[in-house]
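Archive maintenance. Older records in this collection stored only the sequence; we are now back-filling the structure field for every entry so that each record is complete. The fields below show one back-filled record exactly as it appears after the update. Entries are processed alphabetically, and EAL domain-containing protein is next in the queue.

ARCHIVE ENTRY
Title: EAL domain-containing protein
Organism field: Hemiselmis andersenii
Length field: 126
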Amino acid sequence: PQRGWLPPSEFVPFAESTGRIRQVTQWMLEQAIETLAAWQAEGRELMIAVNISTLDLQDGLLPARIEALLQRAAVPAHLLQLELTETGLMASTQDPIHVMHSLHRLGVRLAIDDFGTGQSSLAYLQ
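Back-filled structure field:
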């Protein structure tokens, strides 16, 4: 990389605007699940969290792709946690609930990242 380390705030919006976010997410999921498999081989049952874009939740095939990765690596789904930003969920133009339900049924954990920075913040609620 010519610019060195880039924080997600710099490359995620670009990946989203160019339609490349799904490829970025797929690569991150592959890396995370391979890491989980390596940890399991060492006798460590640790969980890993991966931030995903709200745009990823518009992809109805996301749960099936994650399930295939988990099965191929023989990794239990409960060791994978997907983190979604509160502001991204609130700004979503499509209803991500059906994809979230499918992920939950697989056993994948879901978490709200940056909770309290958006519509649930005290300033907003007041």
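Update note: The mean pLDDT is 86. The longest strand covers residues 80-85.
Entry marked complete.
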